[in-house]
Amino acid sequence: MPERPDLEYVVPILNAELVGRRISGVRVKKPVVLRVAVPGSPETLLVGETFTAVTRRAHFVCFALQGPHNVEMIVSPMLAGRFALADAKSRAPGDLAVAVALADGRELRSRDDVQMGKVYVIAAGARQQVPGLATIGIDVLDDRAFTRAAFRALAQRRRDQVKIFLMDKSALDALGNAYADEVLWEARLHPKRMVRSLSDDELDRLHDAIVTVLRHAGEVVAARRPPLDEKVRDFLNVRGRAGQPCPRCGATLRTARVHADDAHFCPQCQPDERKRVFVDWRKVGEGKPS
Ligand SMILES: [Zn+2]
To answer: What is the Å distance from ligand 1's center to 176 Cα?
Structure first.
């Protein structure tokens, strides 16, 4: 899925290209992705509207519009959603889900080859109509908000596994599957550790890893300048590399099931603490029959 570093590259480009442009047409190729929360069709609601801003919230892309219908468009790319800006006359890709035509002859294409993403049209500001959009957690790249203390306080309330916690957008803005794995590798923590088993030192390490990994990824993606519809992932250390050697210790990287997702990790750098057998040697031998 496009994650925060991908979207932080794409969204400013969309903002620069789209703001001030008027929508002249809408083509819906894959109706299954569409969620229209106000009366009307996408065509009647969007045509005539002008883009005023494109912003990111967690893994959502929000297109603010100005015009007679007082609506906004929100795209949740989920697993495989991606954007492209193309000449409206050019051949549309097979995975085109929705195309929004601009008065200048181009179109904004929302592509999705697994059709798990969503394109919402909602009344402007009615963000509670989009599941997950109204409650988004701390911006992890905001130094003032995302302190070690704030992270520890957040972790204290958790009763889940650390990878699930990292991917919870209502807690943290925002990590998905790939970068959660990268962060856990950086912090040397097993993806299935329970959050409440983490020491303060481990939480600090995790906090710092979140910032380091996302900042670095943002820099790499920005430097590579990929086309809008491509995501750069070849620099990742563990994600997508199961079976290959760990770049840090050489052990073979593995996968583990964490709820519905696969986690990729290094069994040596990220030992599974749950399997450690604790033997209290002071009590061994004291067990006299009573
Ligand atoms: Zn390793």
So the answer is: 21
The burial of 249, by beta-carbon neighbours within 10 Å (0-12 exposed, 13-18 middle, 19 or more buried), is given as exposed
Shortest CA distance to 85 belongs to which of 27, 6, 13, 24?
A: 13
Task: Report CA(142)–ligand 1 centroid distance (Å).
Answer: 30
pTM of the entire structure? 0.90
Q: Is 83 helix (H, G, I), strand (E, B) or coil?
A: strand
Q: Ligand 1 mean position to 267 CA, how many Å?
A: 7
Distance CA 65, CA 48 (A): 10
DSSP E strands: which ranges in 163-283? Answer: 172-173, 254-258, 261-265
* Distance from the alpha carbon of residue 126 to the mean position of ligand 1, in angstroms: 46
pLDDT digits (tens, 9 = 90+) for 105-161: 999 999 988 888 899 999 999 999 999 999 999 999 999 999 999 999 999 999 999
